[in-house]
Amino acid sequence: MSIRENFSDADMDQWLNDNRVTEIECLVPDLTGVARGKILPRAKFTQDRGMRIPEAVLGMTVTGNYPTEDPAYDRAISNTDRDMILRADPGSITTVPWAIDPTAQVIHDCYFADGTLVDFAPRSVLRRVLKLYADKGWQPIVGPELEFYLTEKNIDPNLPLRAPVGRSGRAETTRQVYSIDAVNEFDPLFEDIYDYCALMNLDVDTLIHETGAGQMGLNFQHGDALALADNVFYFKRTLREAALKHHMYATFMAKPMGGEPGSAMHVHQSVSDAVTGRNIFTLADGSPSPRFRHYIGGLQRYTPAAMAILAPYVNSYRRIVRHTAAPINVQWGMDNRTVGFRIPISGVEQRRVENRIIGADANPYLGIAVTLACGYLGLIDQLEPTPMYNGSAYDHFYELPQGLPQALTLLRQEDRLRDVLGERFVDVYTAIKELEHQEFMTVISPWEREHLLLHV
């Protein structure tokens, strides 16, 4: 559920007064997952005020440019630079624990002047998918697991990232997977993170050390898909701020360091009957239901076309490499971390699928929306999965696109996903990602200078 379940506008107003808030950060998650918006004094913040920002704010590349020469983009986004109307979601309001003065932050939904949701806004895309489930009497349940790296501050982007120095005065040089002592190296930072999350009502769970040097992972308690996307959005912001306080960076790049594993956002997902609350993946006798198979079949069928959303940057595909703790396939298996879709060992009411393909760099709203969309299409079309995979799938052939251009082509060609996610969203999103790739291609990498400068 939301951070503050069933909060009304009046409840939000009272909360602001009770907490003596003097300033409010009005946030809109853009397509990259960056927090856009405005900062207002408390006296100026009301729902009736109808705060506005330009529609084009949701149509930027990660570098801040616009694909204005793309015909589909031009049809989707007004060339008059018109405004969107923002409306706060009262249930998302929470404190900004690192602020000096009493400050709140609240996530806003974006509307056109006619009162309809801006359909290419990330939150709107997720709402669209969730409505398809609700129309069938279903409620998706998700549980994200988010990996990230802590690094030394790096103010020169030409230099490689390095693991940070912990309280011992030394940086990690060896793999410390699941090491408690390695996590304790950064106790002051993680104490702040847990304190911040408690103040914000973010329901975080287990913290572990992952495989890479300075790589950590955090689990979220399972729940409502929109609320969990909000939590991940807030957590990314919170972690970056906490790391800066401790003179470190926290990064969700999919592959920030050469020679180290990439970072993922694994999403556990199941579907409940909205009336009974029962898991539709399980029959009355406790056995897997046909719908469980169909959901997996949908993930297998449509995930390759969804990769431009699940792996949204050129850097994302550096993670999708054989034998680097990331799947290169759409196989499924029981308690098998080498496949794209793992079935964890669980009780029959907790039967679920873990999508291990999604990168930590994915926009949480869009990543959750598109994996649910793939499963939804499997349920609707009653798609059958391949046989369960046994053994290591790292040696299996590639079933996922190996670069952003190929992924964008697959997304544009997949009409079924376009229908579920929204035509205008797909047009805007693919135009932005194509421009990002063009920008990347103008940059010459150190590898090219090292191996091609004098040898070709």
TrEMBL record:
The highest taxon in the source lineage is Bacteria
Q: Which Gene3D superfamilies match?
A: Glutamine synthetase, N-terminal domain, Glutamine synthetase/guanido kinase, catalytic domain
Q: Which InterPro entries match?
A: Gln_synt_N_sf, Gln_synth/guanido_kin_cat_dom, Gln_synth_cat_dom, Gln_synth_gly_rich_site
What name goes with this protein? Glutamine synthetase
Q: Which cofactor does it need?
A: Mg(2+)
Name the family the entry cites. Belongs to the glutamine synthetase family.
- PANTHER family annotated for this entry? GAMMA-GLUTAMYLPUTRESCINE SYNTHETASE (PTHR43785), GS CATALYTIC DOMAIN-CONTAINING PROTEIN (PTHR43785:SF3)
The UniProt keywords, alphabetically, are: Ligase, Magnesium
**UniProt entry tagged with the keyword Heme:** no
By its UniProt entry, which Pfam families does this protein fall under?
A: Gln-synt_C (PF00120)
For the GS catalytic domain, which residue ranges apply?
122-456
Q: Which SUPFAM superfamilies match?
A: Glutamine synthetase, N-terminal domain, Glutamine synthetase/guanido kinase
The family database entries (SMART domains) matched by this protein are listed as: Gln-synt_C (SM01230)
